[in-house]
Predict the structure.
Amino acid sequence: MTGKSTTREDLVEAVYQRAGLSRAESAAFVELVLRELCDALATRETVRLSSFGVFTVRQKGKRVGRNLKTNVEVPIEAHRVITFSASPVLKAHMNAGD
């Protein structure tokens, strides 16, 4: 594993380089896309991005967990989680370099 992470700034730079927008416009564009994605997930919508994958929101029920260090049972409240399922196209692209 390389340890490199792509940041928001990396995305802005990629849009700036490839789309021919100004840096400010590129930053606004990236922010808009991320905000729309977050807003859709916050309202429990499924987000499908063709050739990329599907983001879904799942409800997890209340349950009992365990602190592994102390072996004490700990209640875990019900909460929502985001799951991502990569598309076959993304998986193939990811594995093309092997």
User: Anything to note?
Assistant: The beta strands are 47-49, 53-60, 63-66, 73-76, 79-86. Helices lie at 8-19, 23-42, 88-95. The chain is about 40% helix and 30% strand. The mean pLDDT is 94.
